[in-house]
Amino acid sequence: MIRITATISIAEDEITERFIRSPGPGGQNVNKVETAVQIRFDAVNSPNLPEFVKARLRKLAGARMTRDGVVVITANRFRSQDRNRSDARERLVALIADAAAPRKYRRPTRPSRAAKERRLEGKAKRANVKKTRSKPGLNVHS
């Protein structure tokens, strides 16, 4: 079992791994060894994820989730299979943990009366400065 949070864990057999050739520089090694890993996790059909986590995971995963609800993560940052495998798993765990974290709701706030008065005083001062810059006799609004 892979522990995500205190209440959520996923089974090892829910994750499928496939090793692919890693793109980029690397000499002969890149042409011979499949070091990059692509892991797939069927989030929609997972019995271990609550429905709210699945819904939130769909939003957070974005392009990393297929239409069928499978999360696909490709890791090719390192030059060894083992490090790429652990990197991909860590990224999957972090993604699911983000989806499981409770959302912080914003409490709507309003400016205080003093803040409104300060804003209006500042506007009045600025208007006065601009008014004094104009040529005499052209003050239409006074």
Note down, in words, how this protein is organized.
The protein has helices at residues 28-32, 51-61, 81-100, 113-133; strands spanning 2-3, 9-10, 15-20, 36-42, 70-75. The mean pLDDT is 82. Helix 2 crosses helix 3. The protein has a domain at 2-100: Double Stranded RNA Binding Domain, CATH 3.30.160. Helices cover 40% and strands 16% of the residues. It has a 3-stranded antiparallel beta sheet with strand order 3-4-5, with helices on one face. Strands 1-2 form a two-stranded antiparallel sheet. It is built from 4 helices and 5 strands. The chain is elongated, with a radius of gyration of 28 Å. With 142 residues, the chain is of the alpha+beta class. The longest helix is centred in the C-terminal third of the chain and has 21 residues, at 113-133. The N and C termini lie far apart (77 Å). A hairpin with a 5-residue loop joins strand 1 (2-3) and strand 2 (9-10).
Strand content: 15-25%
The Rg value, from CA coordinates, equals: 28 Å
**CATH class type of one domain:** Alpha Beta
Mean pLDDT: 82
| Main sheet properties | 3 strands, antiparallel
The name of the CATH topology of one domain is Double Stranded RNA Binding Domain
Helical content stands at: 40-55%
